[in-house]
């Protein structure tokens, strides 16, 4: 039977997302808080140099450096590309990792609450989603597992045999909010409890159906031909992560006052609305569909 | 009679506070929106290099470089120290400025709404405060005018013969929110309307008493002897800018769970609660008393 023997809790992949950094520090000060009987837990602060610089990253986004082909490429030598190789040696190697489950802790400036992001498919993840949602009804389950195979996935959490992201907001970059830290701590505890019960084959009866959001694609801020932003997220959409956007709803406001309407044909559910870290790519939000995770 | 002939609206003193930058861009695209009959308005983007780097500043905080002694010191040569000298030549010189009123636009990550900050005293400011509060009842008037004489004041707005800050939040760093941009635009329009009526000696009847908050001092996050943070702003205080803190109220939560109570002897009113930009100095919030601005 499948067992989780080694769990890694990773904070500070992004240097200005403080909840994970401080939660890892707390776990290091009081290891019993992340300890369970059936597995070993280690805690890792992934990018202290970016934290010291008070930036998301020094040279490139560490959470985009974990494709197999990139990990194997000695020409990729900048700070985060180097950190990725070190973390892969420390916790992996990806594809044959000594880490059974990697829990990667992140913050967003968007109003997403506590969100469990699954980047791969399978019954282990489905049971975890059902367990977390049952014990934390306000939690959001987000699925992004059918776009890439693990080896092509660039995210840090794909380094483990299993891997998930815990994404909590809203929190401005470079700020530590108690309510957001509490939410992250709560979700991590539920995940650790789930793993313990999973290992002991002692899971409670789980709901057969769990609501989730499946990533479709991202959309960009309005721009002109010169690549300059000419508008912003509409105030009706701001802070309404997971709330439906219907065809014809206003989605952007241009700086000249014009409202831009959503032209899609189906209802979609936005996440990462107006996320600060995505401005470098002019991304306005991610669009999702609502799906159901079913247990057999 | 006192007349305001030259107004400067300054955005982007801090590179990751986007509302002022985009409002200045809008005014440059549609100058009639900041034009009035009795004075000339110019718009200035103070620190484009910091915006390009997506940082508050490159080398030092531009909004702390405007003391007379520093402007006159040729040894202060970093990027922002140099920008301050250039802006002083362009809009000043401080003490004999060609700019009659400088309006400096800022964002905070704190839940402060639209806040008019007065850094000097006098009937012009008192009338402006009364006018703005009368026309925008949710606006906050903040006074910080009795701690320094203008020549010792380091803020950019002290460069003008008159100068005020417009501080609007909550907005994460490096994000543009429509609601926050709208608030800033509304407050700036009221200030420009006030100046027009002031110049024309045509002000309406103003309230004799206007509520304001007077800055007392700032307090630091809990730290240990090694200078490491050991706690955070208490969740009961987070987002409650301008709400009273009474002696004995919880104000911080330590990472070990201990609550730290406010030990002052009087009721105080916090502002800039958990402001991201103040973490470099470990500042937790500013404390204020409630005062009344009286017109004669």
UniProtKB/TrEMBL annotation, chains A, B:
Q: What is the main EC category here? A: hydrolase
Q: Which UniProt keywords apply?
A: Hydrolase, Metal-binding, Zinc
Could you say which cofactors this protein requires?
A: Zn(2+)
Q: What terms describe the molecular function in GO for this protein?
A: aspartoacylase activity
Q: Which Pfam family, an example, fits this chain?
A: AstE_AspA_hybrid
Write down the EC number. Answer: 3.5.1.15
Q: Does the keyword Repressor apply?
A: no
Answer yes or no on keyword Metal-binding.
Answer: yes
Instruction: List each copy of the AstE/AspA barrel-sandwich hybrid domain by range.
Output: 209-290
Instruction: Spell out the InterPro entries in the cross-references.
Output: AspA/AstE_fam, Aspartoacylase, AstE_AspA_cat, Aste_AspA_hybrid_dom
Ranges where the Succinylglutamate desuccinylase/Aspartoacylase catalytic domain occurs = 4-194
Against HAMAP family, the record matches this protein to:
Aspartoacylase
In the record, the note on similarity to other proteins reads:
Belongs to the AspA/AstE family. Aspartoacylase subfamily.
* PANTHER family (UniProt xref): ASPARTOACYLASE, SUCCINYLGLUTAMATE DESUCCINYLASE
The entry's protein name is Aspartoacylase
